[in-house]
Amino acid sequence: MTDAISSYIFYEIAALLVLAASVGFIGLMLRQPLIVSFIAVGILAGPSVLDIARSDIQIDLLAELGIAVLLFLVGLKLDLNMVRTLGPVALLTGLGQVAFTTVFGFLIGLALGFGWLISLYIAIALTFSSTIIIVKLLTDKRELGSLHGRIALGFLIVQDLVVVMAMIILSAVGVGAGQDGAWTEVLAVFGYGALMLVAVGLFIRYLADPLVERLSRSPELLVSFAIGWAALLAALGHYLGFGKELGGLLAGVSLASTPFREAIAARLASLRDFLLLFFFIALGASLDLSVLGASVFAALIFSAFVLIGNPLIVLAIMGAMGYRKRTGFLAGLTVAQISEFSLIFMAMGLSIGHVTEEALGLVTLVGLITIAASTYMITYSHQLYDRVEPLLGVFERKNAGRLEDDGAAPAQAHDVIVFGLGRYGMAISQELSTQGWQVLGVDFNPVAVRYARSQGMDVMYGDATDPEFLAHLPLTDVAWAVSAVPEHDTGITHDDPRRALVLALRELGFGGRVAVAVHSTEMGNEMRQAGADLVLHPFRDAAAQAARLVLEGGGASAALAPADPEGQRELVS
Question: Which stretch of DSSP H or E encloses residue 28?
């Protein structure tokens, strides 16, 4: 009998994994993040559709472990040194967005007929944005290091801190709910939490670095330790009354200051995704589609609020602080969705008895709508900005951009402007400078701008695809504009930023010549059709130069010497 039950559970898990892979593939084709596919798997596997997920105990166990690992990875990001150095824009924008969403979300909930407690839960759930999704999308677009990407990451950390506080309060209230002497229980939970914080602080101060350094000699052991540590503190947190979630988060915080946190996070990311699948399966199995259907109108109202209201408050706060409307808009789009924490938060409220399954279903539906819509909004953020830019003037001060420029524009004339100051762009700029050419560098990444300026280079912060910025560049005496902007794998050539740069320069009447670096023949043809005078193939050109050195018999010393950049001297001759 036991063997039969074990076999049935195995068949059930296998079916769920096959379903997850199939739905995930469809989601990939639709350019949707994994969380949307996972929620869809949960609904399909639930009793309302296929009724596959029946092993509640096993699925719930994996789901709880998944939440602990997720919060452990969130804790890994909360380096105390980073938290102390959060900039004012991240702090004010993060707290402002949380306050705005909570207040207006609460009022919308009351207007829709929800009770005050459920309205408060929904409002708080709507404040959390998905760090996982935002980081993934910005990384894919190579914008995580840009100004709006770094600001977004900063206020996402602020949101994570709010998550921590909300879960601490919720866990404490949950302990005392429905009990005599509830306040005594609540105070006991806070007391245990304080003791655990002290213990974690001592661990960070004296044990974390030497212990993790010793474990890092075996990567497999390091991963096993990280999982075990997260599970241990999650279990301890549950035993002391403030929840497995906070225990797992504290486990991550305890290792966040170590130099190996990125390696741990990278190795556990796949395990997190795998285990979170079972959280969403458990969530979907508990949902009734008829309940979701009854919540459609309210979900659309809340979704419109999240998709429009959240970005607007970020845009308004950043505009008031002196940032350009473009930067505020691009950063604001990153909060146009709710996260997996929203569902976890509502699930905790359901377990306490504060909210109903209908409220959980409502927030789940809002999650599906906002995550799906915001994915496209962020992916095509620049095109969306071009459409709405005329309406955003009210969010920009007259002296906007002072905080972004990181220094005034150079006054002297330049022979060449190089857009994109990565390794290739910097190499071109430095070689042209050694040949006596006056070079102006342009980049959208503040880190790259500061580095180039530290090397003595004239440089400006700006977006090469922004016609408004290009119009203010000193183009009159420039002989060459060179694009070394990284290639964005959007799959749509007419949306390529390099093509947009070439077209914008020509529309502005730029009389010099334009060179563009590409990585494929097809893209090179596209750039020529757009008006580029010269197409550079960095890898092909480097290979040809290396082959020439070998064939000329230059010897080891010549081969190790810097290649003679004939093509670059010819470029500006």
Answer: helix 2-29
If you search the block for the tokens 């974690």, which residue do you land on?
Answer: 200
Query: CA-to-CA distance for 509 and 367, rounded, in angstroms?
Result: 46
Contact 439, 415 (CB under 8 A): yes
- For 228-286, the pLDDT digits (tens) are 898 898 888 878 776 677 788 788 888 887 877 777 887 887 888 788 788 777 777 76
Question: pLDDT digit string (tens) for 311-339?
Answer: 998 888 888 887 888 888 888 888 888 88
For residue 137, what are the CA distances in angstroms to 111, 143, 205, 339, 483? 34, 9, 35, 14, 23
C-alpha 393/C-alpha 404 separation (Å) is 17
DSSP 110-131: HHTT--HHHHHHHHHHTT---H
The per-residue DSSP string of 219-271 comes to HHHHHHHHHHHHHHHHHHHHHHTS-HHHHHHHHHHHHTTSTTHHHHHHHHHHH
Cα-based distances in Å from 99 to 70, 89, 128, 202, 463: 25, 15, 11, 33, 31
How far is the first Cα of the chain from the last one, in angstroms, to the nearest whole number?
85
- Tell me the whole-structure pTM to 2 decimals: 0.64
Rounded Cα–Cα distance for residues 123 and 110 (Å): 10
Q: Which of 451, 410, 380, 372 is nearest to 145 (CA)?
A: 451
Q: Residues 69-105: pLDDT tens digits?
A: 877 887 787 665 655 555 677 778 888 888 889 999 9
User: Does residue 400 sit in helix, strand or coil?
Assistant: coil
Confirm if 479 and 533 have CB atoms less than 8 A apart: no
Q: For residue 528, what is the enclosing H or E element?
A: helix 521-530
Q: Dump pLDDT digits (tens) for 333-384.
A: 888 888 877 887 888 888 778 888 888 888 888 988 888 888 888 888 888 8
User: Residue 393 gets which letter from DSSP?
Assistant: G
What's at 131, amino acid-wise?
A: T
Whose tokens are 């730029």? That residue is 510
Cβ 158 vs Cβ 95: under 8 Å: yes
Tell me the C-alpha to C-alpha distance, in Å, between residue 112 and each of 305, 357, 568. Answer: 13, 17, 65
pLDDT grade, residue 111 (50/70/90)? Answer: very high
